[in-house]
Amino acid sequence: MSKILIAGAGGTPSENVIKSLLECEKNETIIGMGSEPSDLILSKASKKYIIPYAVDKEYKNKLLQILNVEKPDLVHFQNDIEILEASRLRNSILSTGTKLYMPTHEVIENCVDKAKSAVIWEKEGIKIPKTFDIHTPEDLKRAFDLLGDNDGKIWLRANVGGGGRGALPTNDYEFAKKWIDRFKGWGEFTGAELLTEKTVTWLSIWHEGELVVAQTRRRKSWNLGNRTLSGVTGVTKVGETYSSEEVNTIAQDAIFAIDKRPHGIYGVDMTYDKNGTPNPTEINISRFFTTAYFFTKAGLNMPKIFKDIALYNEFPSLEKKINPLPDGLLWLRGMDCEPLLTTEDEIFKELIQL
The ATP-grasp domain covers which part of the protein (predicted)? Predict the structure, then answer.
């Protein structure tokens, strides 16, 4: 029986992968590791290893210890910083006999750093919001002068990190300056033209340059979005299956601009501009998004497809590679509530209105 090690166990992105893998018929053993004890203890993994954060100098030694003790057949990471560090350590990881299924290190670097992605996309003619690197207060002033909308607003965010890290829509220079100071973010932030709140994500798996499967999801709202200045939390409250030829084309163009031979997981986040065109904002590289279990319950288990390719060289037989799920399926999530797979019609059939 094969053994799979999942990093970030107990956290939402990893746990949805683990739940998907536990529904597979091959009954692989799923082991978890994580750096946050209060998350890790909640994991459904059969074993739960505590490990330092990826930025810790002891991370490499502890990771290799776990790999040498457990001898997993495959290890998979679900956090940008940890993915980047694991990619740096890939030769050491592979030397333990454990498999990886991820893009080249250069591709991972270019995707984890959103500023690098933006430079590549602009050079390749991909339509994105105008974006400036913010190294100094003078750069910040320039961003406001050249990128502000009718209300003078721009979009600030950290170059690295998920969950809307450092995201801030603002037209207040002094507040923006203090915001970057708070994150110690000079040289690690970008300023961009402000797009709309409408977003879409194209999650895909590739193998040696060939598309295996892709599914689109629209985000209708964020969990706890009213608790952040940006409205972004990285945790989707309501997601909806969706299909669009325009989105399919733009997503693939964005991927091929960065990687001519895609291999692994590529989740293209797009935000619509005021003309209704989706603009790529980042590629979540080598990881599934937080609602991967949505697709699993709807009938498309992408973590299963991923591990079947990595472990057994088995590929799915799908009528459609792109958007095999029907449009209009909703995935509803809330704190301490079981998620619900439904449709808008089913919701209003059950609700009572006087």
Answer: 118-311
- What pLDDT score was predicted for residue 225? 46
Helix (H) or strand (E) run with residue 154 in it? strand 154-158
CA count, 13 A, side-chain hemisphere, 153: 11
Nearest Cα to 138, choosing from 177, 88, 99?
Answer: 177
Structure-block tokens of residue 324: 């095999």
Instruction: Give the pLDDT confidence score for residue 164 in this predicted structure.
Output: 67
Name residue, tokens 């080598």. 286
Sorted by sequence, the CB contacts under 8 Å of residue 172 that are 6+ apart come out as: none
> CA-CA distance, 305 to 314, in Å (whole number)?
8
Nearest by Cα to 43 from 19, 75, 77: 19
**CA atoms within 13 Å, Cβ hemisphere of 169:** 14
Splitting the chain (354 residues) into consecutive groups of 10 residues, what average pLDDT does each group show? Answer: 97 96 97 98 98 98 99 98 98 98 98 93 94 90 88 85 76 90 89 89 98 93 50 69 98 99 98 94 95 96 99 97 98 87 93 90
**Domains, the chain:** 3-100 (3.40.50.20), 130-193 (3.30.1490), 199-350 (3.30.470.20)
Closest by alpha carbon to 207, among 88, 304, 72, 310? 310
Residue 309: name the closest of 101, 103, 85 by CA. Answer: 101
Burial degree of 91 (CB within 10 A; 0-12, 13-18, 19+):
exposed
> Looking at residue 114, what is its pLDDT?
86
CA angle 131, 132, 136 (to 5 degrees): 155
Three-state DSSP state, 81: helix
Whether the Cβ atoms of residue 263 and residue 208 lie closer than 8 Å to each other: yes
